[in-house]
Amino acid sequence: MQRPNHGLEDSQTLNVPKKRRGKNHDGARGPYRATTSTQFSPSDYTVGWICALPLEMAAAKAMLDEVHADLPKSLHDHNTYTLGQIGVHNVVIACLPSGVYGTTSAVRVATLMLLSFQSIRLGLMVGIGGGAPSPRADIRLGDIVVSRPDESFGGVVQYDYGKTIQEGRFRRIGTLNKPPHVLLTATSRLQADHISRPSRIPEYLSELAVNYPSMVPKFTYCGQRPDQLFDAHYEHLNSEDICEHCDSSRIVTRPTRPQNHPVIHYGLIASGNQVMKHGKTRDRLARELGILCFEMEAAGLMDLFPCLVIRGICDYADSHKNKQWQEYAAATAAAYAKELLYIISGDQVDETQTAPEIPSIIGEYLITKVKLL
Q1: What count of other Cβ atoms lies within 10 Å of the Cβ of residue 363?
Q2: CA-CA distance, 107 to 370, in Å (whole number)?
Q3: Which of 25, 140, 168, 349 has its CA 20 to 30 A from that of 320?
């Protein structure tokens, strides 16, 4: 498959201006406009944003400054997209097929996105995840975990991929790619900015409430939702989704935070093809690898679609997990992604390479198998 040179159109020159509108990359505010009549083409979209759940896609759409009209897709592309703009960036948002989750589904969606939008330079995987609180990371429900590389991993660890060796020990095999350099430098700047000024996430959540009133009950903070972290050895025995009848004496005592705004954590995110619902295993992997969060899609993306993974914490990856915090956690993650895009300039994106060439074998396989979704 041939990609346009540097994501440009027929002129093949770096001096061709992009169709960019809206706010400046410093985050200056302008009047909210839900739709635009400006005509765009697939080559105008440079940010690919992937979600796993419809509620995550709803949160992503709510963060757009403008919503664009649908565009024709590649013949074999069965994804459904939401198109729009954040700051100076044109963004294409895709969601995994309903009920089909995990690393394989994620790579299919990303591959098909790149077939239709061949100028994508920046990738974001944004949604919810299970937190791994520890003495070094006071993670609460609604907080945000952002993938960050360390000396051993590229930001995402495929914790269930490897082989069993002597004495039943499990050895993980291989490492995954890092996000594009521009995203890593942007997260560093944002982390530095938040030392001297507060995050704009509460502001963006307030805008969501104004622009989408029907989303307020679930997608904004509600103190009535209990944030309870149970002892890792205490299993949820009741058949009910909520923990109303769980033993309150097994709740971990944590200091009260001075405010309700989400805290942003940077570190490793664990990704695998199964849901993590076991407190002792969660804590063991957190100790061994320094994991802050568990999710199910990112490991399938990093080599094909290098991206920054942003997860809002909706549960504690144990048997007590429920869905009460999912929408709010999705909104906080999407708000972080919006704040991040505001500090990335259009020039930085232009200087970033397009997403890696899709291997022909993978592309042909997905085109053949996509109807199975």
Answers
A1: 17
A2: 11
A3: 168
Task: Indicate the number of domains in the chain.
Answer: 1
Residue 6 has pLDDT above 70, yes or no: no
CATH code: domain of residue 242: 3.40.50.1580
Would 26 be classed as within a structural domain?
no
Phi/psi-derived region of residue 144, left when phi > 0, alpha when psi is between -120 and 50, beta in every other case: beta
Q: What gap in Å lies between CA 12 and CA 3, rounded to an integer? A: 12
- When pLDDT is cut at 50, 70 and 90, the band that residue 298 belongs to is confident
Q: Say how far apart CA 350 and CA 344 lie, in whole Å.
A: 11
Is the predicted pLDDT of residue 170 greater than 90, yes or no? no
Locate 120 and state its tokens: 């994508």
Do 243 and 228 form a contact (C-beta atoms < 8 A)? yes
* Closest by Cα among 63, 305, 61, 288 to 183: 305
Q: Name the residue range of residue 61's domain.
A: 41-372
Query: b vs e for 253-275, b when ≥16 Cβ sit within 10 Å of the residue's Cβ?
Result: eeeeeeeebbbbbbbbbbbbbee
List the one residue out of 141, 134, 125, 126 whose CA is nearest residue 314.
141
Per the prediction, the chain carries an average pLDDT of 82
The verdict on residue 231 lying in a domain is yes
pLDDT of residue 367: 52
157 compared with 312, residue with greater pLDDT:
312
The answer to whether position 13 is within a domain reads no
Position 363 pLDDT exceeds 90: no
Q: Is residue 208 part of a domain?
A: yes
Beta-bridge partners for 80: none
3-class SS at 90? strand
Report the pLDDT value the prediction gives residue 335, as an integer from 0 to 100: 98
